[in-house]
Amino acid sequence: MQTDLVCPSCEDLAMGGQTHPICKKRFGLDGLWSLGIYQDPLRSAIQKLKYKGITELADILIDITLEYWVKYQPFVLDQIKKDQGVDWVVVPVPLYWWRVNSRGFNQSSLIGQSLSKKLGLDYSEALKRTRYTKSQVKLKEKDRRKNIFDAFAISPDYTLHPKPYVLLIDDVWTTGSTLRECCYVLKKNGAKKVWALTLAR
Ligand SMILES: [Zn+2]
């Protein structure tokens, strides 16, 4: 299941998943951590969580992620610990309310809550969707960016100010357009660092 970590900008290998210095953008992601490649058995576990509602899988997959980090990527946990004074906050990529209602839950929220509990970090649904967007699954990369543009905002009852470091959670990294767009909104609103964390890519 283990995978090498890549830079969220150019997607070439990157030490610890950190964005290469030359790939850094002002409102861009600082890094990307993924548990594995989107293939079985990880793919079927994510699909069971998402579409069959086997929500216990969120906890199980986060346990595996943490075990894996301790063993192969201690750098990841060190980063979070080192900056503990700054307070990392776990923020899930939101679903549009209509999709939450039809599915009954947001898989990214479940993953984020599990991670925050296990690492003792704060959890916040700081982002909201401002409009409905088509599923990204069948879209080409260019259309994905267009589809997701301006689709997120900071939730009105949340201020980012005291929590400038964000672990942004989604189930799968495909082209990264959703996570990049969410990061842009978070950084525009005061986040100092944003790392994307996904189960698969
Ligand atoms: Zn890069």
Summary?
InterPro entries: ComF/GntX_DNA_util-trans, PRTase-like, PRTase_dom. This protein has 201 residues and is of the alpha/beta class.
What layout of secondary structure does this protein have?
Blueprint lengths: L30 E6 L5 H10 L4 H17 L1 H9 L5 E5 L4 H7 L3 H13 L2 E2 L3 E3 L11 H8 L3 E3 L10 E8 L4 H12 L4 E8 L1
Parallel strand pairs: 1-7, 2-3, 2-6, 6-7
Antiparallel strand pairs: 4-5
InterPro entries: ComF/GntX_DNA_util-trans (IPR051910), PRTase-like (IPR029057), PRTase_dom (IPR000836)
Family: Belongs to the ComF/GntX family.
Protein name: Phosphoribosyltransferase domain-containing protein
Q: What do these coordinates show?
A:
The protein has 7 helices and 7 strands, in the order βαααβααββαββαβ. With about 200 residues, it is of the alpha/beta class. It has one domain (about 15-200): 3-Layer(aba) Sandwich (Rossmann fold), CATH 3.40.50. The chain has a 5-stranded parallel β-sheet with strand order 1-7-6-2-3. Strands 4-5 form a two-stranded antiparallel ribbon. Helix 1 (about 40-50) packs antiparallel against helix 2 (about 55-70). The model has no long low-confidence stretch (mean pLDDT about 90).
